[in-house]
Amino acid sequence: MSMDSVERFLTALDPDHREAVSAKPHEEQQRLADAWERELADDTELDTLDELSPPAAEAEAARRVLGLETG
Question: What pLDDT, in 10s, does the model give residues 36-65?
C-alpha cells in the first residue's frame, strides 16, 4: 500500500512540525506536500543524500519547505 504525497510529507517531518502541519486544512497540507515533492525532484544536492539515505533526503527537503514558509 503506497502513501500519498501528504502522508509521505508528514512522515518526513519532525514530530513538532508534523503536529502543526496536520492541524492545517487539507488544501494547505497538499500545497506543502507538492512543494516538498518539487524540492526533492529539483535539488541536486538532495540527489546525493538520497543515494545515501532516502529518509534523510526527505526530511531535509521537508525542513527546507517549512523554512521557506516561515522565512
Answer: 999 999 988 888 777 888 899 999 999 999
